[in-house]
Amino acid sequence: MLHRPHLYAAAAATLALVAAPRNAHALVDVGVEAGAVTRSAEAPDALRAGAAFGAHLELALLPLLQVGAYYLHDQHALSRAEATAPDVTFDTLGGRARLVLPIPGTSVHPYAWAGVGYGRASYQGELTGVTTGAASRSNTVDPRLGHFLETPIGLGVAYDTLAILRLSAEVAYRHASSFGGSAYDDAPTLTTPTSAVSMLVGLSLSL
Description:
mainly beta; eight-stranded antiparallel beta barrel; 59% strand; elongated
């Protein structure tokens, strides 16, 4: 059991950490994000907007430049009513570079970033009543798996709330290409979602 002087010392140390000014050149930025993603795909495989969450870990190579890894998971439903149990998920892991431009005299940090990632798609559920050419999707039971490359670019703004805590909001356009796997290669093929837009809010630690 801690004695009262020890409790006072711990509280003082915590307060000092929270109230201390931010290091002008943090070396590591690690955080999590959540929000929504829309992915474009032509009918009959159009996707509804879905919930998303992600994470990132970046190292500061220069005062304004951060480089690291990102992860994004998003889940969608097929927009057509014929899908009895549509469940489509995307998982993307990649690297990115972020340029951060602090506004002098404020806690606001606009930023822009670009990256490249590898994504996997999973189509779960039973697809019924859809025919494409000679290949019918009636009674086609998934999972059907696919993979692709993405080249996202994004804009955002971050706000310092505490000594090491930062809030952010961003929007990104995510172009996808080089599709493959059973979802996109095996008949009947599913329509490729060649672009996406993500809208995320985040919480990160700058150490």
